[in-house]
Design brief:
By secondary structure, the protein is α+β, with helices and mostly antiparallel strands. The chain has a domain at about 5-80 and about 90-140: Mlu1-box Binding Protein, DNA-binding Domain (Roll), CATH 3.10.260. The chain is built from seven helices and six strands. It has helices at about 15-20, 35-40, 45-55, 70-80, 100-110, 110-165, 180-185, and strands at about 5, 10-15, 25, 30, 65, 95. Strands 3-4-6-5 form a four-stranded antiparallel beta sheet. Helix 2 (about 35-40) packs across helix 3 and helix 5 packs antiparallel against helix 6 (about 110-165). The longest helix has about 55 residues, at about 110-165. It is rod-shaped and about 110 Å long.
């Protein structure tokens, strides 16, 4: 399939779309229950029912419920409010880490969930690699900045010396008019 997952309507979901649903909450990369349910081809209600029935499979490092503040923050970021009766969630969303997303496949036990789970794992892996690459780039940039800062200081010192040497000489000193004693000659 080469990085794409078939959805029930015959459309295609690229791994990039899965990656775009991965959020950073409490320092963990997570997928929300509604997103996992949509990817696995089940309703959010049915998905969450299965999670509740199998709660022992989801320790806190696999899944956690968002706080009201976290949910409000995410909702305002993505403008997920819909109009109309029954359009709002009754409960706060569940957030699944990579391990929780894989565990969810075991409780759904459908061919589609199994197929999509491979792409979910690949999306988490690509995101991890992307972040690692950026950390490496940031580290290298910092090293170069340190080298440049000492280099820049040396260049700045050299430039100041050159500017001093290039500065036009001050006005020539005039000899005083009149008789100068030997003591005055020594002072000047």
């Amino acid at each position: 399939m080469g990085g794409r997952v078939s959805e029930s309507r015959g459309s295609v979901v690229p791994i990039e779309r899965i990656e775009s649903r991965i959020l950073l909450v409490r320092g963990h990369k997570v997928l929300l229950d509604a997103d996992l349910a949509a990817l696995y081809g089940v309703s959010t209600k049915r998905f969450n029912e299965q999670v509740r029935r199998n709660a022992a499979r989801f320790p806190e490092d696999f899944m956690f419920r968002l706080s009201a503040e976290e949910w409000d923050s995410l909702r305002s970021q993505f403008a997920t409010l819909k109009t109309g009766r029954g359009q709002h969630r009754k409960y706060l969303s569940l957030a699944f880490t990579e391990h929780g997303a894989i565990m969810a496949v075991t409780i759904l036990n459908s061919p589609r969930a199994t197929e999509v789970s491979v792409y979910v794992v690949r999306a988490f892996i690509r995101l991890r690699q992307f972040l690692a690459t950026h950390k490496d780039l940031a580290r290298r940039l910092e090293e170069h900045e340190k080298k440049l800062s000492t280099h820049d200081q040396a260049i700045a010192g050299l430039m100041n010396t050159i500017r001093t040497l290039m500065a036009p000489p001050g006005p020539p000193r005039r000899r005083p008019i009149g008789f100068v004693t030997s003591d005055e000659k020594k002072r000047s």
